[in-house]
Amino acid sequence: MQMKNVVGQSLLLSSILAISSAPALAGGKIEIDDTRWVSFGAGIRTSIASVSDSAPNGSSRASNFNLDNMRLYISGQASKNFKFYFGTDKMWGEYGVLDALVQYEPGEKFNIWMGRMLVPADRIEMNGPFYGLTWGQYTVPLYPSDNDINNGANGVAGTYGRDEGITLWGSMGKFQYAVGIFDGYSGTANQKDAPLFATRLAYNFMSKEANPGYYTSSTYFGKAGDILTVALAAQSQSDGYGTATQSGSFSGFSVDFFFEKPMASNAAITVEAEYKSFDVSNAAGFGATMFDGNANFASFAYLMPAGDGASQYQPYLRFTGNSPSAGASSSLTELGVNYVVSGHNLKLNLNLTNGDANASGAQGADNNTITFGMQFQI
């Protein structure tokens, strides 16, 4: 869900059938003069999943072919401090605007983005699907702007973690911050037109994470040094849910932990964990649209040794638990392996999940699923 590594001169994608033998990807930008430039890029995530007891007869395995993401990126710089970014993705079976923003970036300590952009949140939502450690990282409840149940075709409360608003972000030493105000939920319950407030505060105890803007990753494949980061994210909106006569407010916070340790022969250990708590002040009529309760997950990965420039295997294990205030709790275990050809630009994934947790937070069907996925970016 991000615009990282969007540099490229061509939007023509080579066949993903040759993905396993493709070289490392690189691109370039079109320079107009010393200060002005434009760059182009693209990304694809596609998968096939075999899901137990999900065929129409209720007992056979279902085979699901998915085009998870298809993104086109355009970014550029109009002057020394002013940039722009525009991106698209597949939405509800069609294609639409994912991001569209103007970026004022005078320095490291203070920057302003305005337009349609990622709402500051927890690490997995700041990763986007292309920069997660696991293929299925969205198995805990998501903040309103990333909650598909709320979004619908009208895009209320945002879409794919995005919303219209303004974000102030920057860093001071090893402290990183992002604070924003957004439209948020704009349905009939919000008679006062109350905005959504969002923030993410992170501290890097070891090496400082370096990503575009306030975005994140859940693995750097050992290339970013020793990393230990703890972050707090929070969002709130008055009159964020319900009806015109019975409205309620939303508030939520999360604490996420990330650790990565490079080892000999390009190996690396990665640990990620999170605790998340959501509160909907008036539960009447809101249960179907927003999670109320607590959730957590923990992941562990080991990037296996290899020579410089060689592809690597990265097996991982992830546990998820969701505990709503009303209704049954749910859990999910994911065991998988990434085959890393060129970092987040080119990798394959094979994983097995078992359990009944999902991004809505409500208990779902108890299935085991085998998924094979491919990811490509330029």
What is the CATH homology-level superfamily? Porin
Query: Oligomer, anyone?
Result: single chain
Mean pLDDT: 87
CATH architecture name: Beta Barrel
CATH topology-level name: Porin
Beta-strand portion reads over 45%
Number of domains: 1
User: Regions with pLDDT < 50 over 5+ consecutive residues?
Assistant: 1-27, 149-155, 283-288
Q: What is the helix content?
A: under 10%
* Backbone shape: globular
**DSSP summary, beta strand count:** 17
- Give the strand order, joined by hyphens, for the main sheet: 2-3-4-5-6-7-8-9-10-11-12-13-14-15-16-17
DSSP summary: helix tally: 2
Word description of this protein:
- The protein has 378 residues and is mainly β.
- The protein has one domain (16-377): Porin, CATH 2.40.160.10.
- It contains two helices and 17 strands.
- It has helices at 123-127, 148-151, and strands at residues 30-31, 37-51, 62-77, 82-91, 94-104, 111-118, 162-172, 175-182, 196-204, 227-242, 247-262, 268-280, 293-303, 312-324, 330-342, 346-355, 367-377.
- Strands 2-3-4-5-6-7-8-9-10-11-12-13-14-15-16-17 form a 16-stranded antiparallel β-barrel.
- The longest helix has 5 residues, at 123-127.
- The protein starts with 29 loop residues before the first strand and ends with a strand.
- Residues 1-27, 149-155 and 283-288 have low confidence and may be disordered.
